[in-house]
Amino acid sequence: MIEAKKLTKYYGKSRGIIDIDLEIKKGEIFGFIGPNGAGKSTTIRLLLSLIRPTNGSAIIDDMDCFNESKKIKQILGYVPSEVNYYDGMRVMDLFDYSSKFYRKNCSARINILSERLGLDTAKKINALSYGNKKKVAIIQALIHEPKVLIFDEPTSGLDPLVQSEFFKILEEEKAKGTTILFSSHVLSEVQKVCDRIAIIKDGQILKIEQIESLRQNQFRQIEIYFKEKAEQSLYQDMPIKNLSEIGNALTFLYTGDIHKLLTKLAEDKGIENISIEEPSLEDIFMHYYTERGNVK
Question: Which of 4, 16, 249, 283 is least enclosed by beta carbons within 10 angstroms?
Answer without folding.
Answer: 249
